[in-house]
Amino acid sequence: MNILNTNHLFLLHELVKKNFSSKYKDSSLGILWSLLRPLLIMMVFTIVFSTVFGRTIKNYPVYYLVGRTVLDFFNGSITSSMNALRGNRNILIQTAAPKHIFVLASVITEFLNYLISLILVVGVMIATHAPFYFNTIPYMIIPVISLIMMTTGFSLVVSILAVYYSDIIHLWGVVSLLILYTSAIFYPMDIISEPFRSYAILSPVFWIIDQVRDYVYLGTMHSMSNTINSMLLSIIILIFGIIVFQAYRDRVSKRF
After folding, report:
1. 9 is a domain residue
2. What pLDDT digit, counting tens, does each position of 17-57 carry?
3. pLDDT category of residue 89 using cuts at 50, 70 and 90
4. Is 79 domain-assigned?
5. Range of the domain at 240
6. Residue among 232, 97, 235, 243 nearest 156 (CA)
7. Binning pLDDT at 50, 70 and 90, where does residue 75 land?
8. Reported confidence tier of residue 97, pLDDT bands at 50, 70, 90
9. Does a structural domain hold residue 19?
10. What does pTM read for this prediction?
11. Mean residue pLDDT across the chain
């Protein structure tokens, strides 16, 4: 799967533009929704949960947004990737377009949304007088790389599964809720008692969020062992996704 083939870069570029524009098609505010949606949700969660966790979570809006933006990138990529092949079946049937480009375009589109949402994080940090830890913030690139690899791996797998089993699209709505409530987005993980905490921290997204919060929200260095384990897990998921995708990509057209 040669993702660096220059003959495919133009197609990738056009698909990203198409995905990005269609995401905000018929919307008056357009791309501003990348900022407004997490902002409005943050306001609701802050009003509801800051009274509950206000004493245990300092600067709740920043705590929430740092985690929510990571989760939105992951969930958005998976949701979009499930339709990456199904939604472009006519193109894939009539042309020899490389199928993985459609999945990568979905992930890249959501990553651009993630970068835009970071503007909101910075704005909220300024508005709430949150400190900027310039000595640790650059390390954020480590969990972000890990997040991209993990998300791409999962996206490759679900893009194939959605072609064979359309029910996975409906099932994902339940799974995404499970990930939301096990990733400590709006509450501190230490409020969960054992043995439920041990199950909750099995979520790979939680470990990414935990790392990003350490570097951006707390200004501390994350555990090196956890960082390495998370990176290794992401690499394994990416490799698994590539293997699955390569094994079934040539059979996809027969399922349309």
Report:
1. no
2. 887 777 666 655 566 666 777 777 777 767 666 666 656 78
3. confident
4. yes
5. 27-255
6. 243
7. very high
8. confident
9. no
10. 0.87
11. 85
Question: Position of tokens 């890990």?
Answer: 146
- pLDDT for 191 beyond 90: no
Residue 249 within a domain: yes
Domain count, the chain: 1
CA distance 124 to 116: 13
| DSSP line for the chain | --TT-HHHHHHHHHHHHHHHHHHTTT-SSGGGHHHHHHHHHHHHHHHHHHHHHTTTSSSHHHHHHHHHHHHHHHHHHHHHHTTTTGGGHHHHHHS---HHHHHHHHHHHHHHHHHHHHHHHHHHHHHTT----TTTGGGGHHHHHHHHHHHHHHHHHHHHHHHH-THHHHHHHHHHHHHHHHTTSSS-GGGSPTTHHHHHTT-HHHHHHHHHIIIIII--PPPHHHHHHHHHHHHHHHHHHHHHHHHHGGGHHHH-
